């Protein structure tokens, strides 16, 4: 499979100072599917032992680049290669692969190289005695870390960290939040890296900030704003395409995913689109309208590759709850509700070959699309700023959601450059002429049916009936309506504890039993009294 997916999509490694005794761990538990490679590697002054996951498993050490004292492991991919090649001044690096390009950046800039990179990745780098574990600007590939007395463990999934299996030991890491249920495992913040130096054999850590959501806003004339958004979205889409098999777009028929599908279809032939619905609800007509429009707009050799509808029974959809939490390692019930229908969809795509999937996920956050009631511009901008302050740690963008089914997703709206441009537009360009996400709708209006451009927002959890089915499950367990929200939280946290901290596999989980257990726990606030005896 010549490079249409990242070389590596996950890792779990322990770094110990070279020369100390290090044992190769027996196994690591990843939700990300794909061949696992055992690694024992000298990296700078460190020894790395553990595992990495790669979609193809073709090269001996996928995602690894080494040059003298510098070694890089990259899980994921970069999107501003042109810029980076110019920055390091070596045109040969254009085709060398993302890990080699990142290595050259690290040699030139040190850990600050991560401030230059636009990508979807988690990385571990060693440069002599210095170790850096970093994730991209939005924590797009989540990264976890535990610091022991003489070693540091890092992994793209918390459950894959050796420390998770061995119990909670390890040191606090300044500036990092410990993970629920553990004192020792920390998540590397979005737009952050942890720099480790071994001082007299003991790892010393400091946090390196590489990105932070901008708070300033820009007023642009309408025409200029539309041109900027169109160009930046087009670049974000194109930088996510690779040679090889044609990509897939998950298409709801809303403006966000329709714009991504339209620009992808313009950039490469063969785009396949896929929509999911349930017995309760679907957006099939709306998605089909877009797919047909794109098929007509791209005849002959530029033709699109077809559109598929996948319907999932509500009962089967809810059965994906454990898989969703196992993959995303998310404890937020609202986010889990958004992710559930997508996780279910990814697991029903053809599994015979890994797909590159583009989504419209996340456009609402910088554009305030979910805040339909915030009609004052101040309230809209407050909501945007608040969502950007609180997204970290939710793992909404995690590639493991599709990785559990063997596929790779990428979200153009959270491209670092596009995200910054969308965020910094003043609220009056986001809500304008009585319409939400005005600047996006108008910027792509020429590519889509007029009905699609005007269509009001429907969240994936609403369009698929997920919210209603989760609510129904809890009503069946006797939860009164005013406690449904709290009960959803209790169930999600219970599943997280079993699957992430507890090491259970989602197929071992009996959802009915876990729901009952979650609702009857004495520490489930406001639920206990209402449901006892049901
Ligand atoms: P939304 O909450 O509607 O913004 O959904 C986020 C993204 O998930 C969309 O932009 C689509 O890429 C994808 N998506 C949402 N609903 C569906 C669906 N019913 N079928 C396929 N993909 C969907
Ligand atoms: Mg939608």
From TrEMBL:
Keyword Ligase applies: yes
Domain Asparagine synthetase: from-to ranges: 228-376, 409-467
InterPro entries per the UniProt record, alphabetical: Asn_synthase, Asn_Synthetase, GATase_2_dom, Ntn_hydrolases_N, Rossmann-like_a/b/a_fold
Keywords: ATP-binding, Ligase, Nucleotide-binding
A Pfam family: GATase_7
Segments for region (Disordered): 515-534
Domain Glutamine amidotransferase type-2: from-to ranges: 56-161
PANTHER family in the cross-refs: ASPARAGINE SYNTHETASE, ASPARAGINE SYNTHETASE [GLUTAMINE-HYDROLYZING]
Protein's recorded name: Asparagine synthase (glutamine-hydrolyzing)
Organism this protein belongs to: Streptomyces rubradiris
């Amino acid at each position: 499979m010549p490079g249409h997916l990242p070389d590596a999509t996950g890792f779990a490694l322990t770094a110990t100072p070279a020369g100390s005794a290090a044992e190769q761990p027996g196994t690591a538990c990843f939700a990300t599917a794909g061949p696992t490679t055992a690694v024992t590697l000298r990296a700078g002054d460190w020894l790395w032992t553990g595992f990495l996951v790669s979609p193809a498993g073709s090269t001996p050490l996928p995602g690894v680049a080494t040059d003298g004292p510098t070694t890089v492991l990259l899980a994921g991919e970069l999107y501003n290669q042109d810029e980076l090649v110019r920055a390091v001044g070596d045109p040969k690096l254009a085709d060398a692969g993302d890990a080699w390009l990142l290595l050259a950046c690290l040699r030139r800039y040190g850990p600050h190289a991560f401030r230059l990179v636009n990508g979807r990745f988690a990385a571990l780098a060693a440069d002599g005695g210095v170790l850096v574990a970093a994730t991209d600007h939005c924590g797009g590939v989540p990264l976890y870390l535990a610091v022991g007395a003489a070693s540091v463990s890092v992994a793209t999934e918390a459950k894959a960290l050796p420390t998770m299996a061995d119990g909670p030991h390890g040191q606090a890491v300044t500036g990092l939040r410990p993970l629920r249920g553990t004192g020792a495992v920390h998540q590397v913040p979005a737009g952050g890296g942890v720099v480790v130096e071994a001082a007299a054999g003991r790892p010393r850590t400091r946090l390196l900030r590489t990105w932070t959501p901008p708070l300033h806003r820009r007023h642009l004339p309408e025409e200029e704003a539309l041109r900027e958004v169109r160009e930046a979205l087009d670049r974000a889409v194109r930088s996510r395409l690779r040679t090889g098999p044609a990509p897939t777009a998950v298409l709801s028929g809303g403006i966000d995913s329709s714009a991504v599908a339209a620009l992808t279809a313009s950039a490469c032939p063969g785009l396949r689109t896929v929509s999911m619905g349930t017995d309760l609800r679907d957006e099939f007509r709306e998605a089909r309208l877009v797919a047909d429009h794109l098929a007509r707009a791209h005849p002959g050799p530029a033709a699109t590759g077809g559109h598929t509808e996948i319907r999932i029974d509500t009962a089967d959809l809810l059965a994906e709850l454990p898989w969703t939490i196992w993959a995303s390692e998310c404890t937020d019930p609202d986010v889990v509700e958004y992710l559930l229908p997508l996780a279910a969809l990814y697991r029903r795509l053809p599994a015979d070959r890994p797909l590159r999937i583009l989504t419209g996920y996340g456009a609402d956050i910088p554009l305030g699309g979910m805040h339909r009631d915030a009609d004052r511009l101040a309230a809209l901008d407050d909501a945007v700023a608040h969502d950007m302050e609180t997204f970290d740690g939710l793992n909404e963008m995690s590639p493991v959601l599709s990785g559990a089914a063997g596929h790779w997703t990428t979200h153009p709206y959270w491209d670092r450059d596009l995200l910054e441009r969308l965020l910094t537009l003043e609220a009056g360009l986001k809500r304008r002429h009585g319409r939400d996400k005005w600047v996006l709708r108008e910027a792509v209006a020429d590519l889509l049916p007029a009905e699609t451009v005007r269509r009001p927002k429907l969240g994936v959890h609403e369009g698929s009936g997920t919210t209603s089915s989760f609510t129904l499950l809890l009503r069946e367990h006797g939860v009164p309506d005013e406690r449904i929200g709290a009960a959803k939280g209790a169930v999600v946290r219970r599943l997280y504890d079993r699957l992430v901290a507890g090491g259970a596999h989602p197929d071992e989980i009996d959802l009915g039993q876990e729901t009952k257990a979650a609702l009857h726990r004495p520490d489930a606030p406001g639920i206990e009294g209402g449901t006892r005896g049901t």
